[in-house]
Amino acid sequence: MTALSGDRLPLSAASAVSLAPENRPPWVRTITEEDLPPLSRLDEAVFAEHAYPYFVLRQLYDLHGDQLLVLDDGDALVGYVLVGTQSDKSRSWILGLGIDRRSRGRGFGRQLMAEALRRLRAAGVREVRLTVEPANTAAVELYESMGFTRLDHHENYFGPGDARLVMMLPLRR
User: Fold this and answer.
1) DSSP code string of 57-84
2) How many CA atoms lie within 13 A of 131 on its CB side?
3) Are strands 77-85 and 92-99 parallel, antiparallel or unpaired?
4) Is residue 3 within 8 Å of residue 97, measured between CB atoms?
5) Which residues of 68-86 are buried (b: 16+ CB within 10 A; e: fewer)?
6) N or C: which end of the chain has fewer CB within 10 A?
7) Quick one: the chain helix, strand, coil %, rounded to 5?
8) DSSP assignment, residue 31?
């Protein structure tokens, strides 16, 4: 969801997802079709009115399922990252990054992004871009700490008054 995404690490949102049982650390894995309903619930809890409709998540799964990673704690999904890559592998976009509200501040967004970037490098992708709401300082700081730089600021990127920063990271293997 480039149109409502990349900025998919919001400052606050309601949550309907549990934490890891018995303090077992969550692990990153590729999504399965059975994960779509809980992914949709997570996306709605994290992004509220900016959440992907279920049918869009379904189609994104069909198109980019191998690039849709979830963070699983054994009981529930606590986060996800969705990547879309151009067919020539010249550029990928982070189309969504969401972490359950109760699981934030524990490095899970960084864990998901690091794995996504590792996979993109291995696939030979040369550049990654994303959009982020300029006021979402936590997300901007995360992306900058991972090497992303500010490429552009669009005051009406998603429509009147819906500004986004476009950030970019060149990938080296």
Assistant:
1) HHHHHHHHGGGEEEEE-SSSEEEEEEEE
2) 16
3) antiparallel
4) no
5) bbbbbbeebbbbbbbbbbe
6) C
7) 40, 25, 35
8) -
Residue 58 has pLDDT above 70, yes or no: yes
Q: pLDDT tens digits for 82-137? A: 999 999 999 999 999 999 999 999 999 999 999 999 999 999 999 999 999 999 99
3-state secondary structure (DSSP) of residue 162: coil
* CB contact set of 130 (below 8 Å; sequence gap of 6+): 5, 6, 7, 93, 94, 97, 143, 148, 166, 167
Backbone φ, ψ for residue 88 (5° rounding): -85, 0
In the chain, count H helices and then E strands. 4, 7
pLDDT at position 22 is 56
Dihedral pair phi/psi, residue 98, rounded to 5°: -135, 135
Which pLDDT belongs to residue 50? 82
Asked if residues 69 and 29 have their Cβ atoms less than 8 Å apart, the reply is yes
pLDDT higher than 80, residue 65: yes
Q: Residue 151's closest CA among 173, 135, 127, 120?
A: 127
Q: How does the average pLDDT of the chain come out, rounded? A: 87
Model pLDDT for residues 4-33, shown as the tens digit of each residue: 334 444 333 333 344 444 567 899 999 999
